[in-house]
Amino acid sequence: MTTTAAPPADAAPEPRPCNRCKEHEGTIELRGAEIVCQACFAYYVSSKAIKRLEALQRETATPRSTGQGKRRPQRYLVGLSCGPSSTALLHVLTENVRLQRARGQKTSRFEYVAVHVFDDTSSSQPPSTIGVHDAEDAVLSAYRARYPEAQILAVPLSSALALPSLDLAALSLTHPSPAPDQSQDQDANSLSPAQRLSHIFQTLPSATSRADVRRLLVRHLLIATAVSHSCDALLLGHSTTSLAELTLSETAKGRGFSLPGLVNDGAVPVPAGLGTLTVGSNESNNGAESAASPESQSTTPATLPIYSPLRELFRKEISLYLSIPSPPLTALLPPFEAGALAPNVGASGKAAVVSHRDMSIDDVLARYFGEVEASYPSVVANVVRTTGKLLRRPNSDHGHDNGNGEGNNNGGSDGDSSKQTQCGLCGAGVDELGDERWRGEIGERDQAGAGAEGGLNGLGRPKTKLCYGCERSVCG
Fold first, then answer.
1. Phi, psi of 162 (to 5 degrees)
2. Beta-carbon neighbour count of residue 289 at 10 Å?
3. Range scoring the smallest mean pLDDT among 139-148, 269-278, 369-378, 459-468
4. Distance CA 61, CA 67 (A)
5. pLDDT of 18-70, one tens digit each?
6. 136 near 154, Cβ under 8 Å?
7. Beta-ladder partners of 234
């Protein structure tokens, strides 16, 4: 009887070739039990994003012509949060433009402007002193050194208070003083925009409310900047995982009616008057001015396409993609973003226990989907795929019509827009009948107190209209 010696347990497995190129060793496990090399994986990630851009170009192509009869390249505004997804999106766009120029193309198919909205309310010092702006410039200097041909702008979050698309009365109604006097109004007028916004954040009832209002303000600023720079579309760095988080978080906040416009790619209405507004921003490294172009000052588009080119990629795939270029893109990330890429474990090697008391709903769902994505990625994809089946009605954001074909469409004339009611914070159309049913016993905030007459409520302030979700965020 003969026996065969078993191989040692610690023997290294034989290297497997890449399933795509068959030339290099496969080191990355892709979906469907496919092993690929780093070069094929990088091409996989970039091709996913470029295919979404090609779909955007087909859907938004217009017969704009120059003197030579050629269509001008489309201009995109890229929202740069300095996180993993937006950094990967900026890298994919830059590499694609470089590849087009290497092939001998005189003009690329698209050009882009990257905008980073920084929170200038985090510092207690006056904005004129050294602090917030220098810190943000230090973060963006690494991006500008890595991508010298890119136009990267920095916009303060407090500049959102000057946007006509935002109803300041909706935010000023949070815990108002019962009897404001003239001296208090003078003190409020002497505050800088950053100090005013910081005071608004302090009066919000919870961490979820502050995170929600901050996200809405960033969205307003990105749309306004895209219009002021005559951009054809706004590109966001949402991945499949972040879109799933956005789906459940907005539903939990009572803003589930807006999911088709937030999660799906497509055009959103643009508030009137944004084309004449110049959003304050720092100049980029190439000396480009931040003023609005004459084209945007003359006309304001009715809608603006918002697309997420990385929507078909998981967050773990994007995090892996950041480590492939040389030098790695993880060196560009701020310390708190780079630390978020590592799993949250304690000294014993087990998952660290984190209290949810001071966390927002967005942070809780980010942790939840981070764990689900590791074991059940198909569940994360199914959440986004199911939300993608929700369609937006062309004349209404909420599936209600007033009977004469008029809905929530900002692209109409001024006379039509005056008949429409929009949320003063998120800008979505307010479904008054639906809000009444959802509100239940919360009651009409505009009717608070006695003696509400004309355009003033019981507190002596102008009446504002908020959707159910924004009212919960503002009032708790």
1. -95, 0
2. 10
3. 459-468
4. 18
5. 999 999 999 999 987 789 999 999 999 999 999 999 999 888 776 555 555 56
6. yes
7. 77, 306
The answer to whether residues 431 and 421 touch, using CB atoms and an 8 Å cutoff, is no
Q: What percent of the chain has pLDDT over 90?
A: 41
d(CA 91, CA 99): 12
pLDDT at res. 345: 42
Q: Are 49 and 97 a contacting pair, CB within 8 Å?
A: no
Work out the burial of residue 139: count CB atoms within 10 Å of its CB; fewer than 13 is exposed, 13-18 middle, 19 or more buried.
Answer: middle
DSSP H/E element including 34: strand 34-36
Distance CA 466, CA 470 (A): 6
CB 457 within 8 A of CB 168: no
pLDDT digits (tens, 9 = 90+) for 416-456: 444 457 788 888 777 666 556 555 544 455 444 433 444 54
Distance of CA 122 to the CA centre of its chain: 20
CA distances from 244 to 235, 240, 441 (A): 18, 6, 30
* C-alpha to C-alpha distance for 90 and 142, rounded to whole angstroms: 13
Residue 369: CA count within 13 A, CB half-sphere: 26
In 3D space, the residue among 306, 227, 208, 220 whose CA is nearest the CA of residue 263 turns out to be 306
* Strands, E assignment, 119-260: 151-156, 233-235
Q: Which helix (H) or strand (E) holds 41?
A: helix 38-60
- Give CA–CA dist 402/408, Å, rounded: 10
Most confident of the ranges 119-123, 151-155, 389-393: 151-155
Compute the distance between CA of residue 305 and CA of residue 236 in angstroms, rounded to an integer.
Answer: 11
One-letter identity of residue 99: L
Q: What is the mean pLDDT of residues 155-175?
A: 79
CA angle 119, 305, 392 (to 5 degrees): 105
CA dist., res. 351 & res. 365, Å (int)? 16
Structure tokens at 290: 């931040």
| Residue 150 burial class via C-beta count within 10 angstroms: exposed 0-12, middle 13-18, buried 19 and up | buried
Average pLDDT over the chain reads 76
Query: At 111, phi and psi to the nearest 5?
Result: -130, 160
CA–CA distance, 310 with 319 (Å, rounded to integer): 12
Residue 60, classified by CB atoms within 10 Å of its CB into exposed (0-12), middle (13-18) or buried (19+), is: middle
